[in-house]
Design a protein that fits this description.
The chain is α+β, with helices and mostly antiparallel strands and 205 residues long. It is built from four helices and seven strands, in the order H-E-E-E-H-E-E-H-E-E-H.
């Protein structure tokens, strides 16, 4: 039993490490984009000129996603700067969104760019976080909770080396009682909470 528990714990450790690494990368990307957009609210508006813009496509097993490749320039204190950033944390989206961006930022048009006063080379055409930023965080939260639940299970199970079973069993001539260990309860609770939150993101019509 102890050997079986040890091999299972090693497997969960490897899975938790892999899960946390992948989830952490997505969380880092999401947070860096949101933080950048929050910072951009204090950027200084300047007149920009769109040099070029086009709709891009990327294909994978899940279908086609669309993006925008834009190039523009602006002048700060008599010096020209070039940028290709629409916003921080820019991601692919639907073709309707991409078409709207292409129509909004036509070549040779003069939209407002927002420039970091501490670093004039850093600019965006859209400032402030939007709904997709918060949706991405909500989407990632269940995956974070599952990872936390796995690490809690591992931490508590490592402290309980003398009783490695996930469930306690008490047998009597008339009945058998089974109860979860202290390592299973919080991990299962977090996993269930993460699953419930994930399902709420996709309401059934």
């Amino acid at each position: 039993m102890a050997a079986m528990f040890g091999s299972r714990r090693l497997f969960i450790l490897m899975f938790a490490t892999f899960w946390s690494a992948i989830t952490g990368l997505f969380v880092f990307f999401a947070l860096s984009g949101i933080i950048g957009q929050w910072r951009s609210q204090s950027f200084v508006p300047v007149r920009a000129t769109i040099d070029s813009i086009k709709q891009t496509e990327s294909h994978d097993s899940h279908g086609t996603s669309y993006g925008v490749a834009v190039a523009y320039h602006y002048t700060v204190d008599g010096k020209r700067y070039d940028s290709t950033r629409l916003r921080f944390g820019q991601m692919s989206s639907s073709d309707g969104w991409a078409e709207h961006m292409v129509q909004q930022y036509r070549p040779r048009s003069h939209p407002t760019a927002y420039v970091d006063p501490a670093n004039p080379a850093s600019a965006v055409l859209q400032r402030g976080p939007d709904g997709m930023d918060y949706f991405l965080l909500m989407f990632l939260t269940p995956f974070v909770l599952v990872g936390v639940g796995l690490w809690i299970w591992l931490g508590l199970s490592w402290r309980r080396r003398t009783t490695p079973e996930d469930f306690g069993i008490l047998e009597t001539p008339t009945m058998t009682r089974v109860w979860p260990s202290c390592a299973v309860v919080p991990a299962a609770a977090l996993g269930g909470l993460g699953l419930a939150e994930f399902l709420t993101l996709f309401p059934i019509a």
